[in-house]
# Entry
Amino acid sequence: MTAPGPIFRVSNDEGWYRNFSFQMGAASAPPWAGVPAWAAAKTYGPSSACTYNGDLYVAQPGVTPLTWTSAGTFGADTQGGVVRWLRVGIGLAWMRAPYPLADATLSFAITPVRSDGTLTTRTPTLTASTEDGCFLITNAAQGGVRLAIPLARTIDVPAGLYAYAMYATHPDGRVVRLRYGFWTVDQGVA
# Structure
């Protein structure tokens, strides 16, 4: 899901305020767009294929009888009991969707680098997070966030080239790098 972001250019004589929308997946239609969606009363066999919630499924090879009708709902059939389907394509790999941030903690850090991108230290020069109020989730369902680091924290950041990364820590302990790239800080004149 992670992807490099643009190179940001900021000044150390102003606060750093920027809105983002984190997305996952690619920005294209899946190649199985013409495959029909699963239907409860339809008969399926070993050569069957269908879509369900945007994902592509094929009938599990070797399932008997050679033709069968899915019992109950497709979701129940694939999540428990006799699994008669193989998921062979995931829709989110092809379609852009907002990254869900409900109950996540966000963090941001910049660390100085040389012109070739090599870190000069492992200690970040500046960090921000939802816990300190400088990284805000503005729309958890749509992946909307806002970086809001005031001048009092940016004024002491030396001018130079930095690597940056933005992370989401989820309640189950998963840490996902959402965006990364280069961050250029100019020397302010104020």
